[in-house]
Amino acid sequence: MYLNKAMVYGNLTRDPELKALPSGMNVCSMSLATNRKYKDKDGNYQDAVDYHNITIFGKQAESTSQYLKKGSTAYIEGRLQTRSWEKDGVKQYRTEIIAERVQFGPRKDADAAPAPKPAASTTPAAGEAPDYPEEEIDPSDIPF
After folding, report:
1. pLDDT-above-70 percentage for the chain
2. Among candidate residues 53, 40, 48, 44, the one with its CA nearest the CA of residue 13
3. Reported CATH class of domain 6-106
4. What does the domain layout of the chain look like in residue ranges?
């Protein structure tokens, strides 16, 4: 059995581009940056950035282009694919992640909807006794 799985979490380096294929299916392309910190041979911390080409198809492509923009965070799961073509007699290659799952990260901008307020709790606070009814409970009133 073979495995081709890629999982990345990072920031978009540009706005997603939505296009339609001749078949009518939507395709979205974008680039995602991931970074990591490591110690060099002198013991100093260094940053390394990697850029990933992402391609998304179908309904997910529409949602991604609608809700994400440059700087947004996203988690992408998919598979790696390398395409090749010839341009001016030189063979060109592009490795990309074909997304199977896109999960949007937290929104930071002013357009983000405020977090919903928690509903009033009916459970007693820690150390507080629950409010039990005064009358006896008739077992025939229990629905199960």
Report:
1. 76
2. 53
3. mainly beta
4. 6-106
Task: Output the pLDDT for position 5.
Answer: 97
Distance CA 119, CA 126 (A): 17
pTM here is 0.69
pLDDT-derived band at 142 (thresholds 50, 70, 90) equals low
- Please tell me the predicted confidence (pLDDT) of residue 106: 87
d(CA 142, CA 45): 64
Q: Is 7 exposed, middle or buried (0-12, 13-18, 19+ CB in 10 A)?
A: exposed
The residue whose two tokens read 């290659």 is: 93
Q: Give one DSSP letter per residue of 96-111, joined into a string.
A: EEEEEEEEE----STT
**Eight-class DSSP state of 14:** S
DSSP reduced 3-state for 112 = coil
Measure Cα distances from 90 to 44, 56, 65, 95 in Å: 40, 27, 32, 17
- CA proximity to 54, closest of 33, 70, 40, 35: 33
Distance CA 77, CA 90 (A): 31
